[in-house]
Amino acid sequence: QLSYQLNTDRTDYFQEYIYSIELLGKMQTGYADLFNDDSFSKEMELGYQLSIQRKKLVDAYYNQEDDITVIVNGEEKHLIELLTSNALSTKEKIYYYDKWYTAYNQAVGEIFLELVKIDNQIAMLEGYDSYVAYMYDIYEREYALEESKAFIENVKQLVPKIYMKLSKKAERAQYNLQSYSYEDEESLLDSIKEHFMNQDETLGEAYDYLIRYKLYDISTRDNKLSGGLTVYLDSYQEPFILINYSRPYQTALTFIHEFGHYFSYFETGGHQGGLDLDETYSQAMELLAMPYSGAILGSETLGDEAQVYIMSSLLRAIIEGCLYEEFLQQVYENPNQTVQELNALYTKISGEYGMSVDGRNWCQVPHNYEVPFYYFSYGISAVAALEVWEQSLNQETGIQTYLNLIQVGRENHFLEALEKVGLSNPLEKETLERVIRCIADYLDINEIIYDKAA
């Protein structure tokens, strides 16, 4: 799979990956046959068939962007042809893009609804009342749905006001960060090492190992998976970072985020305490690097912009983590909806967070298709990461708390690990209030950002 992500022109890699999944399913079904248990064998066969159907639907989702066309002056145009056309004015491109997006939304929306039905079947087959309960166990979440719902309500009350207050500054920061560039990959990686990784011996050793054995690919290429991710290669017992962005500032900031994943894998040998902890490690790494962002980017002004951008991104992660959790819970509880009803539901829920959005935008989030209910971990872990950062402001314990958390996380789940290193429960309203106040003080936006009496 990683080979294909590094070179998407090599479709043979992808076919090998699909074949390995199918082969694994056949092996599992074969094991069931060995027990001569017809009911068990049938369940295994059904589970195998559902997993294959699911994989094919997710593949179809990723292919739709290339497959969907729109008629322009009597001719079919793919998206790339539409966006690069010299014969169309900007206004015409916007008009035809909207038509293309509507067709795309309908196509991938129908795929999504098929996935929901399959997922609900999988949950029943595994003995769960709902798919969300099944996924909470898959993600190793030790809190109940009622607790996550209470957290969602607290987020609605507390986070949108400061996020909206910061959003204009964040837009300017993102624009200004586009002026950043680096000479080559080596100069970027050297700068990160010199100004941040050398602050701690343990971080420095892990970083040196990554560089020495080139356990990364951060070059920008068309034939490479876009975005950023870190995978653990079980056969080699090594983590690997993959990043592909067109903007240098995105590469720099994402590398620090992904190094949080890399470092936790490096320290624990791939033994993680669940998804919530995993995302805490990456987001806390971003925050701990913030004081050094000016030196890394070669400009204190850009460093200040990066801090605003990172803070805004984490607040958005909290909001979107809850937004998509709420959206998906309602969809999976009521799977017999139309795509238009999904769009209306997304618009309604977004409005409750103070967000004005295009109701079709939910379909652009691959997690909703590939790993439903994942996004909540971005939200809950951002609160925990912010408390790690808060400690680093008041005393020189931020990095040590971070290191302790990774070690404790080898054998404990999210809430247990946080408690053992002296961090608060991020599900509690008081924790959320405190980190928001800390952000407001740090960025000097101390106007009333929420109703303190609430």
TrEMBL record:
Q: What is this protein called?
A: M2 family metallopeptidase
Task: Write down the species.
Answer: Candidatus Cellulosilyticum pullistercoris
Q: What is the lineage of its organism?
A: Bacteria, Bacillati, Bacillota, Clostridia, Lachnospirales
